[in-house]
Batch of 2 targets.
Target 1
Amino acid sequence: DIQMTQSPSTLSASVGDRVTITCRASQSISSWLAWYQQKPGKVPKVLIYKASSLESGVPSRFSGSGSGTEFTLTISSLQPDDFATYYCQQYDTYPITFGGGTKVEIK
Amino acid sequence: EVQLVESGGGLVKPGGSLRLSCAASGFTFSSYSLNWVRQAPGKGLEWVSSISSGSSYIYYADSVKGRFTISRDNAVNSLYLRMNSLRAEDTAVYYCARGVVGEMRSWFESWGQGTLVTVSS
């Protein structure tokens, strides 16, 4: 199975900060990676697919990069609505696996 | 508008069974792979199972293999998850999630609101 390791697990930041979350795959997954945002009590929402493609309707302050085993999600200027938990997901190979999540908290 | 509505969750004793359903609307159901994803209380996301558009390809997480069965009925736009031999660790919100058209190798584009399964004596 492909293990997905996210870091950090918790991140404290202020509105306007540039935030970067890292996801590492235990083997190459090419660009078959998605990023999701989940707020408490809400359904996960896809932000990025194919490592760097922005889902329709997602603000342009979100961006994804990477390929192979190293990936990043960047929020260029953190907004109040962005405080949430973020998950990476590989869909290169079954079983599909998620990272453990990164909680972005208010500093 | 894409809609996925799960039902069938509830309280069940260890060793018991439950059948979850996901009713879909707003898209051509038979053209999409579908998935079940679960989230235990306060925990992260865990993929459970996937089924291709025509049911030819089915995959399970090791944690549920042999106990859970995914199926779909394209005639009534519905996805199912039969869960047998339930354990306390199966307690979670179960989400139905849709992939992208014509692809098994897919991210989860749309999600239902989830249905809570609680396994407890």
Target 2
Amino acid sequence: GQQVMQIPQYQHVQEGEDFTTYCNSSTTLSNIQWYKQRPGGHPVFLIQLVKSGEVKKQKRLTFQFGEAKKNSSLHITATQTTDVGTYFCAGSDSGSARQLTFGSGTQLTVLP
Amino acid sequence: DTGVSQNPRHKITKRGQNVTFRCDPISEHNRLYWYRQTLGQGPEFLTYFQNEAQLEKSRLLSDRFSAERPKGSFSTLEIQRTEQGDSAMYLCASSYSGGAHYGYTFGSGTRLTVV
């Protein structure tokens, strides 16, 4: 079955440093989504990428979808304490994201 | 709309007992999903409904698990003869198939502890 792997598992950064998490799928994806889960909270949808090589930005967050549609990354510039949480990628190999396979997440800690 | 609502928030049960959880999705959303999450892991897919039809079910899902979505509105997830390995956070999510994106809106989850 489809597997989605994410690295690193944990990342500690000083406030103001950059952060990147990487996501790799065992199969070609139709689309990939990113979610953020705050400690004690539930996953919250951030963005969806659909096109090969697509890059999207949300303020300090930059999301990329690989050319082969098998990998993705999330980069945060100048982290803030509000960025703390676990970031999950989730991929679907069907066009309508009926079933998402989630990665194991990258837990980000931002030290003030 | 207040988002996806799940009840109860917490459930402690003895091994061997049956439990049932409820999910009320966003009313405009036609798709409903159940996921399970354990500590340090990403959500794991359990089952999916489009309207009232259960279209997909994880092959990993034991026959002790059953889900329903009568009339395409709220959904229930029942676990029969609970085992300690069933202890997890059970997340419900909904989405709309006709939107610009297919992002899920998750509920706050039901935390199940089997003792």
